[in-house]
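Second opinion, please. Please look over this fold, written as tokens:

===
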Amino acid sequence: MIRTALLSLALLANTAGAEVLTRLDPANSRIDFTYKQMGVALEGRFAAISGRVAFDPAKPQTARATIEVKLASVDTGLDEANSEVAGKDWFNTAAFPLARFEATAVKPLGGNRYQVDGRLTIKGRSQNVSLPATFTPDAGGGSFAGTFSLRRADFAIGEGDWRDFNIVANEISVRFKLRITR
């Protein structure tokens, strides 16, 4: 009887471990952004996303993640603008090729909603951020999605003549969908 109970516990532990999602699927993940330039809303995205993840839907508070974005993969829809924002006044990709988010805490809010706290680093400047996210499970894993805002001045994005918030607004809206699998 005790042996059967121990075997059952071992099987449950192995089953729970099988549910841990550990692979970021870059091909099915997106990070998009919206900003205003001279009052006109414009959009862009980053094409190169990588990272390490450990997420168990049964134990979300144990989750860990590090997501990196290759800043030179920015796509504003115009080649000239892509070259400009990769330059020194914007992302300075020669000196700072990656933006990085490291999750430090995941708090379940109910209904597949979470508060993900972490540290966002862009151009060598770090800020604590709190991101609302929704997890949508599926047969192969699931996706985290959400939207948050950042102030570009906090990360020295847009220096020199671009510091003027009347030209490019300080607030940037970031939308993400990160697909994770087993």
About this structure: Residues 19-181 form a domain with the Lipocalin fold (CATH 2.40.128.110). The chain has one domain: 19-181. Residues 2-18 form the longest helix (17 residues).
